[in-house]
Amino acid sequence: MYKVLIIDDEEPLREAISILGDWEGLQVDEVLEATDGVSGLEMLKAHKPDLVIVDMKMPEMNGVEFLRIVESEYPELLTIVISGYNDFEFTRQAIHSKVVDYLLKPINRQDLNQALRKAIGLLEAKRQVRSESITRNIAYNMSLPKLKEKIYLSIIERSLKKQSNKAFLALIGAEDENLRYGAFVLRILNMESIRDSRFNSDTELLYFAVANVINEMSDDRLQCFSFANPKQEREVIAVYTSRGGYPQELLFQSEQLLKKVVSTLSSLFGIISAGGVGTPCSDALELADSYEAASSSVQAVDLLKLTGKAVIGPQDKLPNRDVHSLTGRVSILRSTLEAGNLNQAKTILGEFIKKVRTSGLFSLGDADRMIREMVVLFNDIALELGVPADKMPSSGGERALRSFRLQTDFATFDEFESLLMRILEYYSEQIRKSIAGDRSFNVDDIKEYIDNHYFEDIKISMFTEKYFLSREYLMKLFKQQFGYGIHEYVQKVRMDKAQQLLDDSSLKIQDISEMLGYKDKNYFSKAFRNYYSVSPSEYRNQRAGEGKK
């Protein structure tokens, strides 16, 4: 017999569920009720029901919060969601929490009992599985797909031993001598942009959609089981199985399937991916070799030839070639970053990237290695210059980079170059802040410099590099203090000085122009007219006329 808990703040709905449910036929001997998520959690703890029916919109604690707690503290508990709100947030949490069913109000007898039968069927299956030897050593909260995923991952990581795990291997058909296995790998090149634009910034939902497309495209010849690689960002692994068949035939079929998959993902979601296929095998434990071959195929994709479209990697190994490294440029990059000269650092990095671009072949694997190397080298530079460790990525991995708001997508070499520049800019900013903390700054110093050097070519970059402050911050600070922008103030000082010099009739306008820092007399005259609405000559004549009076 089973125990069910209904959680809803509306008494009429709780009563309707109690009346409509075929409890006797479903072997439910106790139906409990709670009015909100908080009291529902208390009843969970006290009565330990087998199934919970929960409303998504309630006071105190709504269904989303309730499901999150249940997912963490009661992973074996089955849930049915009822809501009058067809809201994406609710649907997403329901998918994430793996609820049995999602019903919209008003509830009818047929839909309710269909969902209840589905839940009771799962409970019956769990009870039956518990009595079988295969599940004595596994956690009961693990669904069959999740268990298969863990088995495949253990094989791929070469950590699963055949003799001691025969029961587990039976779940993937390893005892069937006619079954053939193989793997193909997908790397989602524009994962972040697609996740944010099409999947409400939910990475799990994106992976679910990709895996679902792969599985749905399976046919009688090839059956696919797909899942995201938890240890490799952007990567989805698909294990394909076939009953019999020659290796070359299976390899051809898997390549055709992969081509359809990358094309479908592109047309449905705009996903740009790089795929690789591994050689089929007759032993499930050889899947590690097939996966490594597929992964190597993806890593071998030539980034220089990518045009922002899906691609399948080559089967052949890459030829030996020179490895591009930033190590030889570390010293000069350190000097420019310490001096606050980001533009020069970008020029140095740009020259290095240009050399890479003309090398003829630069693979995705090369790109991954270069990013990791760059982070390691720049971490060392930053630490030497006083940047706190918590301001630097712990590794070159994407999760570490994204934790510092660095977008890591690249589906072309140009996008890869932009990523390297973003990494450089990030470290430059952290180094600038660290060094600026040790340097005193007074905005009056800038005003004094302009007052004494107004005749020189004054650029704001002179001050940003000296004081390690951003252009925007420096200009804002100066205007707040003196009521002028920096360029405006330079112009004001020059024009005030021009008036004084024009009052001296012995000075030629050409001489005055040069004394104020203008190389061109005409440019000075134009600037003076724009400022005072009269030309220098007209101003001098007016002053002469005033003197005669």
TrEMBL record:
SUPFAM superfamilies: CheY-like, Homeodomain-like
Primary location: cytoplasm
Subcellular location: Cytoplasm
Modified residue annotations for 4-aspartylphosphate: 55
Record domain HTH araC/xylS-type: where: 444-542
UniProt KW Flavoprotein keyword: no
The keyword Repeat is annotated on this UniProt entry: no
Ranges of residues in domain Response regulatory: 3-120
Entries under Pfam families matching the protein: HTH_18 (PF12833), Response_reg (PF00072)
Keywords: Cytoplasm, DNA-binding, Phosphoprotein, Transcription, Transcription regulation, Two-component regulatory system
Annotated protein name in UniProt: DNA-binding response regulator
Organism: Paenibacillus vini
